[in-house]
Write a structure and sequence with these properties.
The complex is a heterodimer of chains A (262) and B (416).
Chain A (H helix, E strand, L loop, with lengths): L4 H19 L2 H8 L1 E3 L9 E2 L2 H8 L2 H31 L6 H9 L6 H14 L4 H26 L4 H8 L4 H30 L2 H5 L8 H9 L5 H30 L1
Antiparallel strand pairs in A: 1-2
Helix pairs in contact in A: 2-12, 3-12, 4-7, 4-9, 6-7, 7-9, 8-9, 9-12, 11-12
Chain B lengths: L3 H23 L9 E2 L5 H8 L3 E7 L3 H17 L3 E7 L2 H13 L9 E4 L1 H9 L4 E2 L16 H4 E2 L2 E2 L4 E8 L1 E5 L10 H10 L12 H14 L12 H18 L14 H9 L5 E4 L5 H6 L7 E4 L7 E7 L7 H11 L2 H8 L17 H8 L10 H4 L9 H16 L2
Parallel strand pairs in B: 1-5, 2-3, 2-4
Antiparallel strand pairs in B: 4-12, 6-7, 8-12, 9-10, 9-11
Helix pairs in contact in B: 2-12, 4-5, 8-9, 9-16
Chain lengths: 262, 416
């Protein structure tokens, strides 16, 4: 029996509303990005152009884009395997005091990042840890709650019977991991890596305090541009530049997830 | 039983780690809070040491012209002296000061901050912690063009500069209005307050502690206290208790006739500028009037934007370059500060198309061709020359005053 037509229509309307709610805020951003002049009370920009893009490039958007990508990638590469290992251990309930361990792993979510960064900055400096490494370490800790939670959920739903069967059939430990376990949790891994990437990609406070100015990332440029008057076009371009890579990644992760469910 | 072993191993590993951590935390041996003083030496010596050093200049990054000036004019000139100048853009100068304080606390010998553009509270905060290198500005050859008795340059928000920072720009608080909308512009702060009452909804100011909103409140303080001479620049609780009530009474009085009946205030200068650009209010204000011609040229502000000249004068200040005591490239930083102070650089920086910042140099002390250069600077219809703008300039009060007034405003005006 198929769903009644009214339900289908309602579902479609709901999805359209949701998409509109997510996309509408981007419309003024897009308009601003190419508005050389847009003053009240005009509904649309009076002059179109690329001033915003030129200003953003002059402010160093290119280099900042690369730095942000690198930072996000490094955080994702470190936080995802750690999250997977911790998630699997926690899901298997073999960790003594598992709830306490989980609470500790999730605690970065509850602590204000400013206080953490300001407090740990002195410690990192005293231990003579290079600024960039300090940023990665702190962001790694901030990203762990997301990867651990995602992977714990994935491993909780994961049937270890498949792995046992592969072992019984003579697969080595590594073959089991590579050919059985990893493909099964791949969508969750991609999701966790995406979240961890976002932590590195969008951070401001740790990068500025602990990074000691060595890492000029996109959020730093957006913040300085946004604190000035008359730079709306530049802020719009920088913001779009910061939104597009995560959206592209999200589409990739989404399609991976769909393939995984099939 | 087998499961206990890993726990033991963990414990054995954890104990020394915890010790190391405690040591790192406890080994504060808090560095003395008195400022580090630079050794007096020959300038050629400084130049020689600076060669090959990299200087990281931390400065507010929201000013495109300022950024371009550093990247395209100052940095190449520094390169010729063998110093690599790198600009670190920040949204708030306090971020840089926090970084320096952390480095100072951790006793880092070669910190990431070599030079900061700052003044006022940020300077005072660092000075309190002994974070700045002192006694070095007298070594700069270009200090000869600076008037040694200029009160704007010898004190910074009431705090003696003491050779702990080198002057860079002068700034003047300016009230800005649209000539097309304000037919009979007020000529003093008192008249401006009266104007706001006669024209309900057409005036407001950014909520302190916004930098500019806070200056406006001090400007009103000078006005209601009967002039700047009646306000002791040094903070005392008695002076505050005597003068502040009248200030807040007057601000409360005009509140109902402000934009949105004063129920809300623009959160920062950017918000007020937006209201002004959109024609919702007729006035805005700025501590950096040099940016005005640019804002008019790109259409953000209307072409009929003008600076209001008030007869009682407005508050002026200077901003400076400071070298953290933790910098590992102090010689290089001194060379850059000296270069930034040179007549050529100050003149280039004063050009409206470059940055339009007012010079800190004394005209009479300058070589004649440089004086001629300053005189030949194009005049703007929007922006009066510095001499006119700074006539009867009021000094800034001590930074403690600023904090106290901002807090008082929050309690009595925002919450009241």
């Amino acid at each position: 029996m198929t769903a009644p037509r009214a339900v289908l229509a309602a579902s479609r309307a709901g999805r359209t509303l949701l998409a509109g709610w997510l996309v509408l805020p981007l419309v003024p951003l897009l308009l601003w990005a190419f508005a050389d002049r847009w003053t009240f009370p005009a509904v649309l920009p009076q002059e179109w152009g690329t001033r915003g893009a030129e200003e953003a490039l002059a402010a160093g958007a290119g280099g900042a884009f690369l730095t942000s990508t690198l930072l996000g990638t490094v955080v994702a590469l470190l936080a995802t395997p750690l999250g997977a290992v911790a998630g699997r251990a926690l899901a298997s309930r073999q960790v003594p005091g598992g709830t306490a361990v989980l609470a500790v792993l999730l605690s970065p979510l509850a602590l204000p990042p400013f206080a953490v960064a300001l407090g740990l900055d002195v410690l990192l400096l005293r231990l003579r840890i290079p600024a960039a490494a300090g940023v990665v370490v702190l962001l790694l800790v901030a990203a762990l709650p997301y990867t651990v939670l995602t992977m714990r959920a994935a491993y909780a739903a994961h049937d270890r019977g498949f792995e046992d069967e592969a072992r019984v059939l003579g697969a080595t430990r590594w073959q089991t991991v590579r050919s059985v376990q990893l493909p099964l949790v791949a969508p969750a891994l991609a999701g966790a890596a995406f979240l961890a990437f976002l932590v590195g990609w969008s951070d401001y406070i740790v990068t500025v305090l602990v990074g000691g100015g060595q890492l000029t990332t996109l959020p730093l440029l957006v913040a300085s541009a946004a604190s000035a008057t008359g730079s709306d076009a530049q802020v719009a371009i920088l913001s779009l530049t910061s939104i597009l890579p995560p959206v592209a990644l999200l589409l990739v992760v989404g399609s991976l997830g769909r393939r995984g469910r099939r | 039983m087998a499961r206990r072993r890993p726990a033991n191993r963990r414990a054995r590993w954890a104990a020394p780690a915890a010790c190391a951590l405690t040591l790192a935390l406890a080994a504060c041996s808090a560095p003395a809070d008195e400022p580090a003083v630079a050794a007096e030496r020959d300038w050629d010596d400084v130049l020689a040491e600076a060669e090959g050093q990299t200087v990281r200049l931390w400065m507010y990054g929201g000013d495109d012209k300022g950024n371009a000036y550093i990247d395209d004019v100052l940095a190449p000139a520094a390169e010729e002296l063998g110093v690599a100048l790198e600009r670190v853009p920040i949204a708030d100068t306090a971020d840089a000061v926090n970084r320096v304080l952390s480095e100072r606390q951790a006793d880092v010998p070669d910190g990431e901050v070599d030079l900061i553009w700052l003044n006022g509270e940020n300077f005072a905060t660092g000075q309190q912690a002994g974070a700045w290198l002192c006694g070095w500005t007298s070594m700069l050859p270009n200090m000869e063009y600076v008037d040694p008795d200029d009160p704007l340059l010898t004190t910074d928000f009431g705090l003696d500069v003491n050779g702990c920072e080198a002057p860079w720009h002068k700034a003047q608080f300016a009230l800005v209005y649209d000539e097309a909308r304000v037919e009979d512009p007020p000529g003093s702060i008192a008249e401006l307050l009266a104007w706001s009452e006669e024209n309900p909804g057409r005036f407001t100011y950014p909520a302190p502690p916004d930098f500019t909103g806070s200056v406006f409140v001090r400007q009103v303080l000078y006005e209601v206290s009967g002039g700047v001479d009646d306000v002791p620049l040094e903070f005392s609780q008695e002076a505050y208790d005597e003068l502040a009530p009248e200030l807040f009474r007057r601000l409360e009085e005009i509140e109902p006739s402000l934009w949105r009946e004063g129920q809300t205030y623009p959160q920062d200068l950017g918000a007020l500028d937006q209201l002004y650009a959109d024609g919702q209010v007729d006035f805005t204000m700025t501590y950096g009037p040099a940016t005005l011609p640019d804002l008019v040229a790109d259409g953000t502000f209307p072409a009929t934007t003008r600076v209001l000249l008030v007869e009682d004068g407005t508050i002026g200040n200077a901003s400076f370059l400071a070298i953290p005591a933790t910098s590992g490239s102090q010689a290089g930083a001194m060379v850059v500060a000296n270069l930034a102070l040179s007549p050529e650089q100050q003149l280039a920086k004063a050009r409206p198309e470059v940055w339009g910042q007012y010079t800190v140099l004394e005209q009479d002390l300058l070589p004649e061709e440089v004086q001629a250069g300053f005189e030949a600077l194009p005049q703007s219809e929007i922006l009066p020359p510095y001499e006119e703008l700074s006539e009867g300039a009021d000094p800034e009060v001590e930074a403690v005053w600023v904090t106290a007034l901002d807090e008082g405003w929050r309690r009595q005006i925002a919450a009241g």
